[in-house]
Design brief:
alpha+beta; 9 helices; 256 residues; 2 domains; 36% helix; two-stranded antiparallel ribbon
């Protein structure tokens, strides 16, 4: 529990991005974020039926625990937001997370306890981040050059709003626009062209499926994030299993 200028207890959490995604002068450039301990105020947020119904309860919670008023949740890269979420859960309800998982050996549902403090950050290549949140990737088949950014929380919220506006059309066609919508937000140039109309045309008509898959894999591998896997031993064998982020992550009593 750190001494600080805020007037309430906080902890310093490290960010998977090491701050390299953010511009000079941003408080996030330090690679850390000051987080307050959850209090009764945050429990009010977690139990708000209105916020739960609107699907914004976790967003409001994370906004509430960020100690530095100069740091905005909207600015956080998705991987850094994941680190904030895990850190907030630990500070609020402790490191032990009781979950039900599928045993990788027997295929049966079993109960286990995950020590959330053992979750680390994905390894990242710092040399890729010399230009901050601005990257380039040459597509392996078409050889076209794609400029892109890593999505922030604000981007994710805007994508969700856009997808919501497409719902009626998707119900009629049965086709989801999520993949192309996300690409249009993430790609910032194609062969040096930065006009959104050029990007939209490329995504809709020219982005080869093989290239799109390779691009998504590359972004997934290079993007800073939490490594949301834990070691689970079954039948004497060690396995890496995904951490299930269910309703009880912030509502431990939900399983009682």
């Amino acid at each position: 529990m750190a001494d600080n200028q805020y007037g309430f207890p906080t902890e310093v959490l490290s960010l998977p991005s090491k701050g390299l995604l953010y511009p000079e002068g941003s408080p996030l450039r330090s690679g850390t974020i000051d987080v307050k301990y959850m209090t009764a105020k945050e429990e009010d947020i977690l139990t708000s039926a209105n916020l739960i119904e609107r699907g914004v309860v976790i967003e409001r919670l994370l906004e509430s625990v960020i100690a530095d008023p100069k740091v905005k949740l909207d600015d956080l890269a998705v991987g850094d937001k994941n680190a904030l979420m895990v850190g907030t859960r630990i500070l609020g309800y402790g490191k032990d997370y009781e979950v039900m998982i599928i045993d990788p050996k027997s295929g049966e549902r079993v109960e286990t306890t995950i020590d959330l403090t053992t979750l680390g950050h994905k390894e990242m290549d710092d040399s890729l981040f010399e230009n901050g949140n601005n990257f380039e990737y040459e597509l392996p088949n078409s050889k076209r050059k794609v400029g892109f950014k890593l999505l922030t929380h604000k981007d994710e919220m805007e994508i969700n709003k856009t997808l919501e506006s497409f719902k009626k059309a998707e119900e009629l066609t049965g086709v989801s626009s999520e993949l192309t919508t996300r690409l249009k937000y993430q790609i910032i140039s194609i062969d040096g062209k930065t006009q959104q109309s050029d990007i939209d045309k490329f995504v809709d008509n020219e982005f080869l499926a093989m290239d799109a898959r390779a691009f998504r894999l590359y972004v997934s591998e290079m993007a800073p994030d939490m490594d949301l896997r834990f070691e689970y031993t079954s039948g004497g064998e060690k396995n890496m299993v995904d951490v299930p982020l269910g309703i009880d992550f912030f509502w431990p009593a939900a399983r009682k």
